[in-house]
Design a protein that fits this description.
Elements (H helix, E strand, L loop, with lengths): L10 H6 L1 E3 L2 E3 L2 H8 L22 H20 L3 H17 L4 H15 L3 H21 L3 H25 L8
Antiparallel strand pairs: 1-2
Helix pairs in contact: 3-4, 3-6, 3-7, 4-5, 5-6, 6-7
Length: about 180
């Protein structure tokens, strides 16, 4: 409703939200939790095949890195450990191409270990930490445009998957 007072987030959700330019953006975990309230979406149906990792343009690498991180969240929601490991390997390849810190690269091992042991909550946290680490590393190198492209890539891919899941499972009563 136009002009209505916006709903306020509880303090625990605000603490987890990413703050950017006076707006708060929910974490991928919060978004997936909200989508599962009316019922479990078919996340397996939202996974896509392998994407290229041999880009030469840094902007294209950053955009695709964000998309891959979103794919990682989708694979975690689908509970597909092999897909998580494959995506983790690709994330590390693209992160290396951008020259991010060793901290990010070491997270690849954690992602594989958590996937191997089906530790889904830990995987979700590790993916969020990886995304934040990538952005922090790029900010250290004064690559703010690339930081934005990683975020945009993630939101484009996430929006694509979420809109498809909503279309497949739309329930008018749950939408209210």
């Amino acid at each position: 409703m136009i002009g209505a007072e916006p709903a306020h987030l509880p303090a625990d959700q605000m603490a987890k939200a990413i703050r950017s330019d006076a707006i708060s953006i929910p974490t991928p975990g919060e978004l997936f939790a909200a989508l599962e309230k009316p019922g479990k979406p078919n996340w397996v149906g939202q996974m896509r095949g392998p994407v290229g990792t041999n880009y030469k343009n840094r902007a294209q690498i950053a955009l695709n890195l964000g998309g891959l991180i979103a794919d990682g969240f989708i694979a975690v929601e689908a509970k597909d450990s092999q897909q998580v490991k494959n995506i983790g390997t690709d994330i590390i390849k693209l992160a290396k191409a951008l020259g991010v810190s060793e901290n990010v690269l070491s997270r690849g091992n954690s992602i594989n270990e958590f996937a191997e042991n089906n530790e889904w909550d830990a995987l979700q946290e590790e993916l969020e930490a990886t995304q934040n680490e990538v952005k922090a590393s790029m900010q250290t190198h004064r690559d703010q445009d690339l930081v934005i492209l990683v975020s945009v890539g993630g939101w484009i891919r996430g929006t694509q998957a979420v809109s498809s899941a909503v279309m497949q499972n739309y329930d008018e009563r749950a939408a209210k």
